[in-house]
């Protein structure tokens, strides 16, 4: 989530080799696609064999290819070209690992994050797994530190993994709620609200191209947005009014 924190990387090599693609070749294509989609090269990182933008959002080869497709709407809060297909994905199950469940603050934060989304009456619902009737699944795992990582949707499905820092166990539950809600936002296509700026914790990820689409009805700056790239001075774990407008517009 926050660019100053370490980012846990899911085994990218294993995922890519399963598709018969050399990881280095695939990563080169991902970086190229991201640059074409409007992400400046300095905002793209390759960490332990995986490609990240904004410090916490992992981009797969498929997702980077979809970002090159023409997006709809205006070019505030921002989204990727990639969104989930709500005609198919109506129920998303968040499945915490045993390690995740062993941290009480993370476990409670997950319940609160799920409630944040479900309270908005969106076209999809989130459910804590294991559960039945799931159209998509997201695994909630752990990482070191007080940050998190996830990725963007591809193929109409949300990104299938979030990783949350176990260091949050020492903080109030609102911190876990904030980080988890933020990472789930990435999995359904939300970018950092301050992605275009390098001031403060802004990641300077680039302001043009189809990879960063302005969501109508939201301001270009929202210091209370849960999707900003750094934690606010006061953490509540709740959406800002413009986060809610953005989510209702998209879903």
Report on the architecture of this protein:
It is a single chain. With 251 residues, this protein is an alpha/beta fold. Helices cover 28% and strands 17% of the residues. The chain has a single domain (1-251), classed as Collagenase (Catalytic Domain) (3-Layer(aba) Sandwich). It has helices at 12-17, 23-36, 61-66, 98-101, 104-118, 173-187, 241-250, and strands at residues 44-47, 50-53, 57-58, 77-79, 91-96, 125-128, 136-143, 148-151, 161-165, 213-215. The strands form two sheets. An eight-stranded mixed β-sheet has the order 1-2-3-8-9-7-5-6. It has a two-stranded antiparallel ribbon with strand order 4-10.
CATH topology: Collagenase (Catalytic Domain)
User: What is the ordering of alpha helices and beta strands?
Assistant: HHEEEHEEHHEEEEHEH
User: Order of strands in the sheet with the most strands?
Assistant: 1-2-3-8-9-7-5-6
Tally of DSSP helical segments: 7
Please report which band the strand proportion falls in: under 5%, 5-15%, 15-25%, 25-35%, 35-45% or over 45%. 15-25%
Q: Based on CA inertia axes, which overall geometry fits?
A: globular
Helix content: 25-40%
Distance between the termini: 23 Å
- How big is the Rg? 16 Å
- Biggest sheet layout: 8 strands, mixed
Name the average pLDDT. 79
CATH class reads: Alpha Beta
Helix/sheet category: alpha/beta
Q: What's the architecture, going by CATH? A: 3-Layer(aba) Sandwich
CATH level-4 homologous superfamily: Collagenase (Catalytic Domain)
- Counting DSSP E segments of at least 2 residues, the number of strands comes to 10
**Low-pLDDT stretches:** 1-20, 70-76, 202-210
- Total discrete domains: 1
């Amino acid at each position: 989530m926050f660019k100053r924190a370490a980012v846990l990387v899911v085994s990218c090599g294993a995922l890519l080799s399963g598709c018969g693609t050399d990881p280095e070749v695939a990563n080169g294509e991902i970086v190229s696609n991201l640059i074409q989609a409007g992400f400046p090269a300095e905002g793209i990182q390759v960490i332990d064999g995986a490609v990240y933008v904004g410090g916490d959002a992992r981009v797969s080869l498929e997702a980077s290819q979809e970002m090159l497709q023409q997006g709809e709407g205006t070019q505030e809060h921002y989204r990727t070209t990639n969104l989930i297909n709500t005609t198919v994905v109506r129920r998303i199950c968040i499945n915490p690992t045993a390690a995740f469940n062993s941290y009480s603050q993370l476990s409670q934060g997950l319940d609160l994050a799920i409630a944040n989304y479900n309270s908005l009456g969106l076209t999809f619902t989130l459910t804590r797994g294991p559960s039945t009737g799931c159209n998509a699944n997201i695994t909630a795992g752990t990482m070191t530190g007080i940050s998190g990582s996830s990725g963007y949707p591809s193929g109409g499905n949300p990104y299938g993994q979030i990783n949350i820092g176990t260091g949050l166990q020492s903080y109030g539950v609102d911190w876990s709620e904030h980080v988890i809600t933020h990472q789930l936002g990435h999995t359904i296509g939300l970018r950092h609200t301050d992605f275009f700026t390098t001031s403060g914790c802004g990641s300077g990820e680039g302001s043009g191209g189809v990879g960063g689409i302005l969501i109508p009805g939201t301001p270009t700056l929202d210091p209370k947005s849960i999707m900003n790239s750094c934690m606010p001075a006061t953490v509540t774990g709740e959406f800002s009014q413009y986060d809610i407008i953005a989510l209702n517009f998209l879903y």
